[in-house]
Specification:
Elements: H1 5-8, E1 15-17, H2 26-35, E2 38-42, H3 49-62, E3 70-75, H4 83-93, E4 97-101, H5 106-114, E5 118-123, H6 126-134, E6 139-143, E7 149-150, H7 156-164, E8 170-174, H8 180-189, E9 193-196, H9 198-201, H10 210-218, E10 224-227, E11 235-238, H11 239-244, H12 262-268, H13 285-305
Parallel strand pairs: 1-2, 1-9, 2-3, 3-4, 4-5, 5-6, 6-8, 8-9
Antiparallel strand pairs: 7-11, 10-11
Helix pairs in contact: 2-3, 2-13, 3-4, 8-13
């Protein structure tokens, strides 16, 4: 297992708060970093490249000495017209961690490596994992079955084991991770980091609407629907949110519905993973991380006790 040295400083838990569209912003990122986990956000959560740079400067100014690193997600796809401009800002501001989605490109990796940054890439299947590894990324984010947002369907046990057989870099596991016990289980599986999204939506500092946060608190794993109908790519959404938008979850098409622009769809149709069943409150990020730390330590201590042994 391998965690880049540049990302170890300030960590109190091997956790990355995932970059969530329309949810992650400076407040959530800063609180994550100051509490000892890596905070991230999508560059496209800011309307302009100039605004994106302003967010980076704000995050740098508000992080306390000794805080954990932060990261930015870039959509590496022809449909993102801001990629080159935003990447130039990332290079100039030397963002410690770049998370790429929808395309692993060697030029992007080389640009980040040029200033000493680290690149992690989202994958949901083995074919994409191999392509990203060939592009030279430092880490693979394994988006397993049950994860919020755009997710795969492969069980995390199988996904971690198969990827580790050909990839020696950092492995980050995503999918149904809501507690410190889940983080410990992630490490036991052989992953280096836990990648947590849905749990951080239900925090005081997330930019999600209060109704969205409460719907996550009220939801269980069976209250999540996996469908390509919202964005054209299979993703997990809160079933009640689909119904509230006049979408019948029992008769979903296999193609994208006409819901207008992408941002509008995600703003009114809310995503969450199966781990919502373990989320019971909306609390400040610092309190959440403190709870995760306690649960993690208790789980690790429980492993050492081995109560299953006879005598």
């Amino acid at each position: 297992m391998a965690i880049p040295e540049s990302l170890k400083s300030g960590l109190t838990l091997p956790v990355i708060a995932a970059p969530m569209f329309l949810v992650s912003g400076p407040d959530l990122v800063v609180e994550c970093c100051n509490a000892g986990v890596i905070g991230t956000f999508p560059s496209l959560n800011q309307r302009t490249t100039e605004g994106y740079r302003e967010w980076l400067l704000e995050i740098k100014a508000r992080r306390k000495p000794g805080a954990a690193a932060f990261g930015v997600n870039h959509i590496v796809h022809p449909t993102n017209p801001r990629l080159m401009a935003d990447m130039m800002v990332s290079v100039e501001e030397k963002v410690p961690l770049i998370i790429t989605s929808l395309g692993a490109v060697r030029d992007v990796v080389d640009a980040v490596h040029g200033y000493g940054g680290v690149v992690f890439h989202d994958i949901a299947n083995i074919r994409h994992a191999r392509k990203a590894a060939e592009a030279g990324v430092d880490g693979l984010i394994l988006v397993a079955g049950g994860a919020g947002g755009h997710a795969g369907v492969i069980h995390p046990f199988a996904l971690v084991e198969e990827v580790r057989s050909f990839f020696s870099g950092t492995i980050i596991l995503s999918g149904c991770i809501s507690t410190g016990r889940d983080v410990a289980a992630t490490r036991a599986l052989g992953a280096d980091f836990a990648y947590m999204g849905t749990r951080f939506i239900a925090t005081t500092e997330s930019a999600a609407q209060s109704e969205y946060k409460q719907m996550i608190v009220d939801a269980g794993a069976t209250d999540v629907t996996y469908t390509p109908a919202v964005s054209g790519i299979p993703a997990n959404f809160l079933t009640k949110s689909l119904v509230a938008n006049g979408i019948d979850p029992k008769s979903l098409p296999e193609h994208k519905l006409d819901m207008g622009e992408e941002a509008r769809a995600w703003k009114t149709v809310w995503s969450a993973g199966h781990g919502s069943g373990a989320i019971h409150d909306v609390i400040p990020t610092a309190d959440l991380v403190a709870r995760l730390q306690t649960e993690y330590r208790q789980a690790v201590a429980g492993f050492a006790e081995e109560p299953w042994r006879a005598g």
